[in-house]
Amino acid sequence: MKQNNDKSDYRLALEKLYHHCDLSRLSFQTTADIEDEYTHLGQDRAMDALKFGIGIKHDGYNLYVLGSTGIGKNTTVKKILAEESATAEPPSDWCYINNFSEPHKPFMLKLPAGYGHQLQTDMLRLLEDLLVAIPTVFESDEYRTRAQAIVDEYEQKKIDAFKKLSDSADEKKVALLRTPSGYTLGPMKDNKVLSPTEFEKLDKKEQEEIKKVIDEIEGELIKTIHMIPVWNKENRERIKQLDREISAVVVNQSISELAVKYAELPDIIKYLDAVKQDIIESVNEFRKYGAEKDSGNNQQQIILSALSKYQVNVLVDNSETEGAPVIYEDNPSYLNLIGRVEHIAQFGTLLTDFTLIKAGALHRANGGYLVLDARKVLISPFSWEGLKRAIHAREVRIESLERMISLASTTSLQPEPVPISVKVILTGSRLLYYLLKQYDPEFSLLFKVEADFAEDIE
């Protein structure tokens, strides 16, 4: 075979090595200007299922997104949820407040977005104001004058009672004597108290008459002495009533300003009324802590902690949330899903109150979407049952695991459950999906929508 050594047939012109693109024909300056209109290629059926499941608002229409790892289902879910949530209204704030009649059962408070943090700040300012105002009003001349008048009236009542008794005894020739151990009675003759020896020298009839009179006076003395604790109690009650009147003036003035601010929210008005009544009844705490308020920043924090029953625990703050929340919980343990009640160790004892209640993923996703990895939920103890219970009941009830499995019998909080409206989206493999569908009868009732991402496309 003859070879062709003429290489000139294989040469290309320089202009043929480069294909010129006319950039002036493009409608953008850089690729950053191009809007992402990416759709998952070849997954039309899965995309339709996703949009249907996310759009429908009925109970039980939660989603299970199934497919192999790396096929892009998580990315697609994230993109669709971002588009769907952007146009939704921001959800409410959720707070826990003290139940003054049953502190172990704190109340739940639902507020418009942004109001939770605002109310929390206002209540802290209220406490700081009252720690100054209440001790000041109790140091005023008006209070001291009225309190002293009550004490003087009580003392005068005792003096009058014993003077009346003494006068009655004098008329009956009996002396009422004050001793270090109390009172005693002695017979008198010629305005002189008789000694025991002198009394024995009297005739029997006269002795009997004197003893009879002394017994009558002694009965009256006993009645008068028994009245002293009653008068003491009346005096304390009148002082307490005066304290209530004085403190009510200050507290009403401070809380009425908040009541005007939150006039359109009846739940807050009801809460402020309960706070007002409790502060008036517990005014001595403010008098005590108010005197210690200027001891330093650390002391001030201790005081506010001691008065934590008047604070607001903002469980979920949506003040900066735009649209519906989309929560991706990478560690769906029971406590991370349902929430928990924390404790503080103090003098060897674990203490807690409503301010230590912490939100779970279901709380944060309330009014929006919660995305979970099915495998991680299933391998975490109690998480799957807790998630199903919350979806079915449409509320989140915070309970400690120790109490659930009877490892501890100590008294704990029983917070009021938080009602939820959340769309749960599980992502996982086909194997898990069909195992759950086969062996868990509740699964098909709670997750009615499946979005199957196929590996084969046309």
* Overall pLDDT score: 83
Broad shape: elongated
**Count of distinct strands:** 16
Strand order of the largest sheet: 7-12-15-1-16
Structural category: alpha/beta
Strand content: 5-15%
Q: Main beta sheet, described?
A: 5 strands, parallel
Which stretches are low in confidence, meaning pLDDT under 50 for 5 or more residues running?
Answer: none
Helix content: 40-55%
Determine the number of helices (DSSP H or I, runs of at least 4 residues). Answer: 16
Distance between the termini: 47 Å
Rg over CA atoms, rounded to whole Å, is 41 Å
Helix-strand layout with pairing:
Elements: H1 44-55, E1 63-66, H2 73-86, E2 93-97, E3 107-111, H3 115-138, H4 141-171, E4 174-179, E5 182-187, H5 196-200, H6 204-261, H7 266-281, H8 283-292, H9 297-306, E6 313-316, E7 326-329, H10 334-338, E8 340-341, E9 344-346, E10 349-351, E11 357-358, H11 361-364, E12 369-373, H12 374-379, H13 383-393, E13 395-396, H14 401-404, E14 418-419, E15 423-428, H15 430-439, H16 443-446, E16 449-452
Parallel strand pairs: 1-15, 1-16, 7-12, 12-15
Antiparallel strand pairs: 2-3, 2-6, 4-5, 8-11, 9-10, 13-14
Helix pairs in contact: 1-2, 3-6, 3-8, 4-6, 6-7
Kindly describe this structure.
The chain is α/β, with parallel strands linked by helices. The chain is 49% helix and 14% strand. The chain has 16 helices and 16 strands. A five-stranded parallel beta sheet has the order 7-12-15-1-16. Helix 1 runs parallel beside helix 2. The two termini are 47 Å apart. The model has no long low-confidence stretch (mean pLDDT 83).
